């Protein structure tokens, strides 16, 4: 049977501010629930505000009198304008951000493009989060020691950065695009960690495991049927899937670690492609150009 560790900690987050994307369902919702119960002020970035409010209400009701504060802000990672609006709202609402959790994502969907013309998995999973991080970074630095957590996947191991055709306009396949976007997540966390050395901000890339969420909604029915027996054995619940995120967010022994990759509440070695320093730097430069940021 696969190992499905649960992170145990009595750490309280009273006075701490958390910003998390993709927060109204699955891993994100369970992460919000845990951090809220610990006393954090949690800002949920969600695409559909009504769904976010429903999740907030359920979490608050279940917690009873215990908990911090939850706010719901609209965020569509497939629109850079929406990312900028969300960042502006967050920057205006808080003095600091202790935890920035880049949780939202999409997986193995038919090819489509974001509002800005990016391949949708790269745009949602990487570029939207890249811009968001840069726009919120001053508030994250203001909370130092603070942490940035990037949700990736074991699928990064099959990923390749197609720098000559980053938007996969030729030779597209859903899993090829997903693998590239998840590799981009690991490279981003690594390069961000290097760039933030000495600031008190640390970064972590996380593989949550195969989790029973809505993320597989784009998979063909026949693939879901074939996967069902294995899924019942090896997959995790959303609560179990949130544990490595929580480990990286809360574990005191990780305070001096940065730019590394984690799964099942422990550090793992990412793929050889994820350890290519030149690829990480190249992706950073291209990402800045694509989202309209000047080089720092």
**Outline, from the CA principal axes?**
globular
In angstroms, what separates the terminal alpha carbons?
A: 46 Å
Helix content estimate:
40-55%
Number of strands: 8
- Average per-residue pLDDT, rounded, comes to 92
Description:
With 296 residues, the protein is of the alpha/beta class. Helix content is 43%, strand content 14%. The chain contains nine helices and eight strands. Strands 3-2-1-4-5-6-7-8 form an eight-stranded mixed beta sheet, sandwiched between helices. Helix 2 (49-63) links the parallel strand 2 (41-46) and strand 3 (69-74). Helix 1 packs across helix 2, helix 4 packs parallel to helix 5 and helix 5 (174-195) packs across helix 9 (277-291). The chain is globular and about 55 Å long. The termini are far apart. The model is unreliable at 221-229 (pLDDT under 50).
Any descriptors?
296 residues; alpha/beta; eight-stranded mixed β-sheet; 9 helices; 8 strands; globular
Offer a concise description of the structure.
The protein is an alpha/beta fold and 296 residues long. The protein is built from nine helices and eight strands.
